[in-house]
Design goal:
The chain has 293 residues and is α/β, with parallel strands linked by helices. The protein is built from nine helices and 13 strands. The structure holds NADP nicotinamide-adenine-dinucleotide phosphate.
């Protein structure tokens, strides 16, 4: 279906698809970036859509969607809020629903809680009934806002590495699940810290690899896998089927539209896409391109 695009999020995933570093990138050019968005279809209905891997992306006045990969939104839904929130929220929502059997009362550590997806993970873990939510990140100011969103403890990841490991180990030694947006060197260090401090080594610990802002490969200490009941799983396109992702979208969209989550969104017109692209690397807000106003 041909849709008029009303809003398309400039997520890290969009940038990594365009610069070729995402694992789904094909290097095909020309590329219209944009992996998802909100548009009005030729049937007049407002839809959130996820595009298949395509060079004909969402950052255009019009794009073509597969209606099976879309959900209808209420007519008064704010396209910018939905386009800003769906991708960062989907990361932890889908991981906790599809990659682990999350139970009310479990304890969660979020590595990279100061990013948009991390902030969402704090709110989603709370909504799903986590008993403890340890939020870890480098940006001290953003970290300070997280208790109001549901974090029961925060860990500052910046500074001396031994001190960081100590703080992390103290706060998160008995978590059940780690939601990891960072990976790279910090993930290896965090794994060692949590397991070294863990009293109950036989208690299952599931590490969910979701993002890699700290590096594409992590040095996993072999002892971590032997000394504790650690499982490492990933959550993303491929490890979760498109069908499974789609089943989660209506409930997630409802939660976003209910105002359940805080998301800082900033809309920019398509004409300013160059400026938007440059700012997205620096901005704390999720930039949303608005092609049709
Ligand atoms: N698999 C999935 O389903 C899925 C879905 C959505 C997103 N993701 C991925 O999740 C990651 C985060 O996405 P996002 O939307 O939250 O991005 P974002 O809003 O741009 O936030 C990224 C955060 O990463 C932190 N960061 C960057 N480099 C770091 C490092 N070396 N060590 C520690 N923290 C670092 C920064 O926090 P500080 O300011 O505190 O340093 C920054 O706020 C990305 O890799 C994205 O592609 C995956």
């Amino acid at each position: 279906m041909l849709v008029d695009v009303l809003a398309a999020g400039l997520h890290p995933r969009v940038r990594s698809q365009a610069n070729g570093s995402h694992y789904t990138s094909t290097d095909e050019l020309p590329l219209v970036p944009g992996i998802d968005g909100v548009g009005r279809g030729s049937d007049g209905r407002l839809r959130y859509f996820i595009l298949p891997d395509t060079a004909m992306g969402a950052m255009a006045e019009k794009t073509v969607i597969d209606v099976r990969r879309s959900i209808v939104l209420p007519d008064d839904a704010d396209p910018v809020s939905v386009a800003a929130a769906m991708n960062p929220a989907m990361a932890s929502w889908v991981a906790l629903r599809q990659r682990v059997e999350f139970r009310v009362g479990q304890k969660v550590l979020i590595l990279g809680a100061t990013g948009n997806a991390g902030e969402m993970a704090v709110q989603i873990a709370k909504m799903f009934g986590a008993a403890e939510i340890v939020a870890a990140g480098r940006d001290i100011k953003r970290l300070a806002h997280l208790p109001a969103l549901g974090a029961t403890a925060t860990v500052h990841l910046d500074g001396d590495s031994d001190a960081v490991a100590d703080r992390l180990g103290q706060a998160a030694s008995d978590v059940d699940i780690v939601i990891d947006y960072i990976w790279g060197e910090p993930a290896g260090a965090a794994m060692a810290a949590v397991i070294t401090h863990r009293a109950e080594r036989e208690k299952p610990l599931t590490w969910i690899q979701i993002g890699s802002v700290g590096g594409p490969t992590a040095p996993i200490p072999s002892a971590a896998l032997r000394a504790a009941r650690l499982s490492i799983v990933g959550s993303g396109q491929g490890s979760v089927s498109t069908r499974a992702i789609l089943t989660e979208l209506p409930a997630l969209a409802k939660a976003i539209l209910n105002g359940s989550f805080r998301i800082e969104a900033r809309s920019m017109p398509l004409e300013q896409v160059e400026q938007a692209w440059a700012e997205a690397g620096r901005s704390r807000q999720r930039i949303v391109i608005v092609p049709q106003r």
